Amino acid sequence: MRVSKLFALTALALAMMPVHSADLLSLYREAAAQDPGVASAKASVAAARERIAQAQAADGFTAGVSAGATANYGDVHVRGLSAASSDRGYLNGSVTASASKPLIRPANKVALEQAKAAAALTEISLAAAQQDVATRLSQAYFDVLLAQDNLILVRSQKAAVGEQLAQAKRNFEVGTSTIVDTNEAQARFDQVLAQEIAANNEVDRTRWALRNVVGRFETNLKRLRAAGGITAPNPANMEAWVTRAEREAYSVRTAQQSMAVSEFDIKRAQTGKDWTLDATANVTHGQSTGSLSSGRGSWTTSGLVGVNFNLPFDVSGAVDARIREALANVDKAKNDIEAARRTAGFNVRQSYLGVTSGAASVAAQQQALKSAETLLASTKLGLEVGVRTNLDVLNAQQQVTQVQRDLAQARYNTLLNELRLKAAAGVLNEDDIRATNAFLAD
Questions:
Q1: Is residue 2 situated within a structural domain?
Q2: Which residues are 67's β-sheet partners?
Q3: 172-181 long-range CB contacts below 8 Å, 24 or more apart?
Q4: Do 162 and 283 belong to one domain?
Q5: Which of 138, 141, 332, 340 has the lowest CB atom count within 10 Å?
């Protein structure tokens, strides 16, 4: 008895504990920390920095040691002179230490600058990947909330239609309506049941979509506050946002940096006609136990210091072909920049109009909600005095629920468009996620 009472008290305590709700900001930080795209971009940055180190090393010293040994055997016979014949084996061995350093190699300098430009490109890609997490997470988060709102609306409709079906059955039983009325009410009720199944599936789908971004399943999300207006974009000038996007959008910056990398390809191809100068030095020590003509051993040591000069000639035309290829790639990159600018401008205009029209829609839906709530209150009063029925109250409640859903959807879309606007301009960061998170209930 005491054990069962203890379990009961424990269950009651757990039920009374506050349930933790995840919000947009916490899920963003969680998603950004484990997102595969961000991790991949970070690995690309690390690899690009190592390529800079490799390019720097190309102008440094190179040194090495090589060694070899051979066993030799010779059998020499001279016709008619048996005394001059010999049959001898001997060993040879040598060790060489060498070092070299480029003195003049234009290609190495260009390769280093290109490696730095490529590293800057990967850093832009990393920032773009982090911004992409913010937009994908926000979309998935508000999709879940909207799906839950739709489910609430469908269930409200189910209650109203269920009451209609029950009333139709009662009227048929007392003879005030026909079976056709009952069948129509049953058909509407069955349709709402199908809508409820679809709404449940949509809730599950959006939750799994959110899990795909965050990396874990989260069902308890903070919802929007009941009140709270949405301000206009700052600056409240669409063309100012377009100008900023054409300059700072990550797609534009990526295209510009890609062109910078391609321009170094031209310089690298042109260095194929440049002369080079390298300093070299080596020391060789060799020993032998004999030779075919002598049985005496010997050893030698030699060394040299010098420079190697090389002047290539593009006899086959391969260098010129590489230059033309690099020039064509730069032309392509220029067109990619223009395409990125146009796309960024279009995205900004679309999102800006979404924010401004969304703010107006939110204001209109707020007024519609006040009207629906007034209708519900008057319908309930009519029920009390006998001029309205329970079905009328349910229909009024359903209208309130639908307007609440429409208002929430307008606010979701406006907040998302505000985030998309900043993402299209290339300025979306954690502070913007925090500002959006402030619209959620505590």
A1: no
A2: 95
A3: none
A4: no
A5: 332
